[in-house]
Design goal:
- The chain has 15 helices and eleven strands.
- By secondary structure, the protein is α/β, with parallel strands linked by helices.
- It has a single domain (about 25-360), classed as Glycosidases (TIM Barrel), CATH 3.20.20.
- Strand 8, helix 12 and strand 9 form a beta-alpha-beta unit.
């Protein structure tokens, strides 16, 4: 029995080291999956055939013990997709959590509803939630989603005018924190949210943008610290708005509050959501986004997420266009690709074949 236990321990060490070497030398080929009610054994067999090696799962699906057992059996890493400031359930329960626009309105656009990034009550409860799912699920990684300020970027097209993009958040939490950090006294004439916002954006915009970016990067640091306190080896991926640094007058910083130079040192992967078709871009644009990130933070692990089927627009995403997007997504310095989503891919046998054949040919 003792020999058997020793052998088992050695095998486990060898297996883990082999997997680590495999992960270092192989592009990360991931897929986002939020729910599944089919045969899990067959699902994993299909992922084996295609070449999927990493799963980006909802915490609900990853709570399924069989899902996680099969992931370990097939040596597939599991990242939990965890939304941050998009939480419809929390907003429904407490509307005071809403981020506020420069016009004094709740941050709502279609299905996108955002929480104030400086609401300490929510941030504390969210950190507790992160710790709970880390302890209960024990994933290989966590993929931080909606970690930014409010903007419905999925409907922002290349000809969008910067002034029409939303500016948030101007609730008391944010204005008070901003004023205290920069020792700013707003004029007595600024009695409404709209007037406060107009003054800040007209006279203190540089500090305001820096404040927004620090708010996001500081909270990323808090989340990473909470996650790594439970598992120091857990990998962290962050979803970013797919805007190049010069797009929309630097909107990724001034609108979304995502400063990649601040964020990159805190995480293991940066994943721009390069859903080219929905934002009326070409497949080549995917590589341009990756290059732009690499120019800002050279050497970082960049994982573009790409669109599989049409969304929001009526025009179809053809197999040829999808194949071009796949090729562009894997061009250096990309470290892999994440497909959005398994539901879309599974429903398109022709695109499944494209992925399988291309990965087999290249890798």
């Amino acid at each position: 029995m003792r020999k058997f236990l020793v052998f088992g321990a050695l095998f486990s060490i060898f297996f883990n080291l082999s997997c680590q070497k495999l992960y270092r030398n192989t592009p990360l080929i991931g897929v986002k999956i939020y729910a599944y009610d089919g045969d899990l054994t067959e699902l994993y067999a299909e992922w084996e055939r295609i070449g999927i090696n990493t799963l980006f799962s909802s915490p609900e699906l990853a709570s399924n013990q069989e899902f996680m057992r099969l992931a370990k059996l097939h040596a597939k890493r599991v990242f939990l997709i965890v939304p941050t400031f998009y939480n419809a359930a929390a907003l429904e329960q407490d509307s005071s959590l809403y981020a506020i626009t420069r016009h004094g309105e709740k941050a709502i656009d279609d299905w996108v509803r955002f929480i104030c990034p400086n609401n300490e009550q929510y941030r504390t409860s969210h950190l507790d939630y992160l710790r709970n799912i880390m302890n209960s699920i024990q994933p290989d990684g966590v993929s931080l989603d909606f970690i930014r300020y409010f903007v419905y970027w999925e409907s922002v097209f290349p000809d969008q005018i910067y002034d029409y993009l939303p500016q948030t958040c101007f609730d008391d939490n944010c204005i008070n924190a901003f004023s205290a950090q920069y020792n700013i006294q707003l004029p007595d004439s600024c009695q409404t949210i709209e007037k406060k916002a107009d003054y800040i954006l007209a006279h203190r915009k540089e500090e305001w943008v820096e404040f927004k970016c620090e708010t996001i990067s500081d909270y990323v640091a808090e989340m990473v610290k909470a996650l790594k306190s439970i598992d120091p080896e857990v990998k962290i991926n962050i979803h970013t708005v797919p805007w190049r640094s010069s797009d929309f007058e630097g909107g990724i910083r001034s609108v979304a509050g995502q400063d990649l130079k601040k964020i990159a040192p805190l995480v293991d992967y940066i994943s721009p959501m390069c859903y080219h078709h929905m934002v009326i871009q070409s497949p080549e644009w995917i590589h341009e986004v990756v290059l732009d990130i690499d120019n800002q933070v050279p050497g970082e692990h960049i994982l573009p997420s790409i669109q599989v089927n049409k969304a929001y627009l009526e025009s179809a995403l053809s197999e040829t266009e999808f194949q071009n997007a796949l090729v562009e997504s894997l061009r250096s310095p990309s470290k892999g690709v994440i497909f959005w989503s398994w539901e879309a891919l599974e429903s398109s046998p022709g695109k499944v074949k494209i992925v399988r054949d291309y990965l087999n040919e290249v890798y």
